[in-house]
Amino acid sequence: MCGIVGYVGGKRAQPILLDSLKRLEYRGYDSAGIAVVGEGVQLFKAKGEIAVLEASMPEMEGTVGIAHTRWATQGKPTSENAHPFVGCNNKIAIVHNGIITNFMELRESLIADGHKFTSDTDTEVFAHLVEMNLDDGDLMDAVRSALKRIEGTYAFAVVADGGDEVVAARNESPLVVGLGNGENFVASDVTALLKHTNKVVYVLDGEMVRITRDAVTITDQEGNRVERKPERIAWSLEDAEKSGYPHFMLKEIFEQPKAIHESLLGRLESIGAEGSFFQDQSFSSVKIVACGTSYHAGLVGKYVIEELARVPTTVQISSEYRYSTAARENPLVLLITQSGETLDTIAAAREARKRGNRTVAIVNVVDSAISREVDHVIYTRAGPEISVAATKTFVTQLIALYLIAMELGIKGRSLTAQARKSVTGQLRNLPRAVQDVLNQAQTIEALANKYHKARDMFFMGRNIHYPISLEGALKTKEISYIHGEGYPAGELKHGPLALLSEDSPVVAIAAKDHTYEKMIGNISEVSARASPVIAIAVKGDTEIGKFADDVIYLKEIPPLFLPVPVITALQLWAYYLAKARGCPIDKPRNIAKTVTVE
Ligand code: F6R
Question: What is the count of structural domains for the chain?
C-alpha cells in the first residue's frame, strides 16, 4: 500500500531518499513526506504525488533520513495524515507501511497521558510510543518496546534526533536492506535500491534491523542476533526505469517478448522430471485463487489445465475463497499474485494449508511474503513491474500456467510425447507472436483515437477468450476510466444488449476455432443495435471484415495460445485510449499496485 525508504551514509540524504521514493510511487501516491536528521529532525510532507513534495520542499542538510509515499487506508489523504510522524517533541520520526489494528485504544490511552495527536492515522500512535520509550536511551530498544504494544502489520523505519542510524522492523509488510559502500539503505522494495546497490538482505517477519553507515544488525524481537547472508539481485536499474518510453505501462507491454522468453528459460526441458514437485503430489482437482488481473490469468489457466491435463479446475477470487466453506475435496491450490503481498491471497494460502491442501504460488516479486506461506513457488521472471496496471506479469502468469498444465498432463498421462512437443513449440513461438502485435502499435493507436470518446465499452469473447475479454475490460476501465465490461459473447442477449448504442463500442475477440461461427452471430446482434464493433481476429480471416467496423489482425496461432497475443493487443488498446483521454496512465486514481488491506 505504502512505500518506505531509509538512508544512512556519507552523502546528503534528501536527494537519495527522494529518488528512491519515486521508484516506490507505484505503491501509493496520494501524499508523501521526508524526515532528515540534521539540526534537529527536519520534516516535510505534502498532499499529492512525490513531484508535489519535491517542488515544495526546502533543502535539508543531513546524511540520515527516512521517507514515505502513501496510499490512504486510515485517515484521508492530507498533508497532516502524510508520514513521517514525529510524536510530541520532534525527537524521533517514523514511517510505516501496514495497519495498526489496536490503534484506537492506544490513542485514547496516549491522549489520556497528555500526548498530542496531529493526524487521523493509525500510524501516529507508534511515533508517540517510540518517543516515550526513547527516554531510556537506545533507539533500537525504544522501537522494540513500542512494537510490543502494537498489533497489526508493519514495516517501520525510525530515526532519532542526533542519531546516525535507521532502525526498522517488519511484520507482514515487505522490508529489504540494501548494502552499499559506506552507506546502507532500507526500503519496501528492491527497485528503490537498484541505483545504489544490488546487494540486499531481506528482513523477515518478527525481525528488526539497525543500519548505520558501516554496519547492518538484524535481530529478532527479543534482541537475539540473526545472521543472514546477502543476496545479489539480478534486476538492473534499467529494468526499473522508463528507458525512453513515455510510460512504464508501454515499456512493460513492449518487454513482453523478453519476459515470456525469460519465463520459459530452462523450464521446458525439465518438465515432468521424476521427483519434481508436481510429479510427486496427489490431488483430485486444481483450485486457482487470486485477485484482479491475476484472477483473470487463473480463469485462462482453467481452460489450459483442463485442455492439456484433463484435471477439473475451479477458480475463485481470494477474498471469496478464504471465507468459503471447505468442500469435501483435495485440490492442489494455485495462488497467483504478481506482488506476493496481496493480503487476501496470502490469507487464502493460509486457509488452503489449514484445509490440508498442498499449495503453489505463482509470483513475480522474489521472496515476497507469500513465498513463505506455500509449499512450492514458481517465479514469473517478468522483472519489476512499476505501472499500476499489470501487463507483462499477466502474460508471464499465463506462461507459468501453461507449464503447470504440461506438468499435470504428463503426470496424468493425458499429454502424449507428440502433444508435449507441439505445446513446447507453441510456447517458444509466443515471443514472436507478441512481437507481431507490438509491431502494429500504431494501427491500434489510430483505432483507439477513433473510439476514445466512448462512454461505455463492452468486450466479448468465447471459451478461453472470455476471461481475456474480462481482462481487456479491466485494463480499459482502470486506466482510461471508460466504463468497460467483459462478457461471454453468448450472454449479451441475456441483459447487456439493453445498454448498447452508438456510444458503446464492442470489442469482439473472434478466434478461428469452434466458436467462430457463433461469434459472427453475436457480432451481428451487436451491430443491429448500432454499436460499432472492433474485432480482434487472425490474419487470413476474410469473413470478419464484412461484419465488424474495424479489425485488428493477429498472426494465426493455435487457439489455446492465442490469449497471449490477444491480450497484448487489448493492453495496447487500453493504453492508447487512456493516452487519448489524457489520463495519468501509470498511476490511475484511487488504486495502488499492492493491496495489503482486506
Ligand atoms: C490490475 C491489477 C490488479 C492486480 C490485483 C492483484 O491491473 O494489477 O487487479 O492484479 O490487485 O495483485 P497481485 O497480483 O499482486 O496479487
Answer: 3
Decide if 493 is catalytic.
Answer: no
Distance 510 CA to ligand 1 centre (A): 26
pLDDT-wise least confident of 236-250, 282-296, 412-426, 524-538:
236-250
Assess if residue 116 is contained within a domain.
yes
CATH number where 489 lies: 3.40.50.10490
Distance 506 CA to ligand 1 centre (A): 24
Single out the catalytic residue among 2, 302, 512, 587.
2
**Residue 590 domain-assigned?**
no
Provide the percentage of residues in the chain whose pLDDT is more than 70: 99
Range of the domain at 18: 3-237
211 membership: H or E segment, kind and range = strand 207-211
- Please report the atom of ligand 1 found closest to the CA of residue 475: 7
Looking at the structure, tell me whether residues 127 and 8 fall in a common domain.
Answer: yes
User: Is 593 an annotated catalytic residue?
Assistant: yes
**The pLDDT of residue 328:** 78
Alpha helix positions (H), 380-458:
392-411, 417-438, 441-451
> Is there a single domain that holds both residue 224 and residue 116?
yes
What does pTM read for this prediction?
0.80
The answer to the question of residue 593 being in a domain is no
Q: How many CB atoms within 10 Å of residue 244?
A: 6
Q: 197-206 pLDDT, tens per residue?
A: 999 999 999 9
Residue nearest to atom 5 of ligand 1 (CA): 292
Which atom of ligand 1 sits closest to the CA of residue 394?
10
Q: Whose CA is closest to 510, among 472, 473, 541?
A: 541
Nearest one of 181, 130, 134, 191 to 156, comparing CA atoms: 130
Is a pLDDT exceeding 80 seen at residue 596? no
